[in-house]
Amino acid sequence: MVTTQQARVPWPRRGGLSLLWWSIYEHRISYLFILPVFALTLVFSYYPALAGLVYAFTDWQPGLDQIDFVGLQNFVTMVQDRYIQVGTQNLLILLVATIGKYLTVPFLVAELIYQIRPYRAQYWLRTLFVTPLVMPTMATILLWQQIYHPSIGLVNNLLKAIGLGALARPWLGDPGTALGAIIFIGFPWVVVLPFLIYLGGLMSIPADVIDAARVDGATALRRIWHIDFHLLVPQFRLCAVLGFIAQMQGFWYILVLTGGGPLDATYTPALEMYYAAFRFGKYGYASAIALVLFIVIMIGTVLNFTLVKSSVEYEA
Description:
By secondary structure, this protein is an all-alpha fold. The chain contains 17 helices and no strands.
């Protein structure tokens, strides 16, 4: 009886290109199923990205009879743009805060959940922390907008209730507190995705490593410092990249809460990109800002994965 494995046509013993085409032909049904997804990705992801790269060097605006090539003029304008300068300073502060959120609290919570026994209790607590992921993010932002409300907000009313009414203020309407108020959103900052990444990394650490540490008399803090930190370097690296990318691209919550104000206290380059395109119709200039953000994200990501290394890594 001839088995399925024996009945398969042997691959040709030829080099590179012939072998590639033969592999595609052999798995043609699989490729046929992913072809629509690939086509849609090309049309709605790669084509706009490449078009934006070209438009970054033009004066493209709606209504223009002709789109002219302007070279580096958009980038010169960007360097001279006061909103880009202030937005860059705000972005640096937000980057430090966001990456700090991704690298600290989710890891500590993952450690606490990982230590809980029995496993059934661990499972339900893990589910409890993941549940907020199903809540629309916009609902959370609007909730915090009400928390910061000057008259009916929880923060000001709580300060008044404990006798600190003098500290009450319009948190999102004060240039001195607006950026800090945005950073504080989401407290206590148990970001779900990093939490799951860290917990998965902890669960992937070989049991014999943990058992050996216990036999040697290592306390929980020493085990975390000497074992978990070192073995979870890939997870820390990934979360740092995710936080970096999220903050570099993120502007919608600032758009909803403050619109970049008061004055320019919460402005960011991504928000300026949005305004340039959809408020002022300067699509060429917006494309130039998007190109610079892409380059910065790419450089930051490559440096992170190149410079941050671990002597021992386990797959999560």
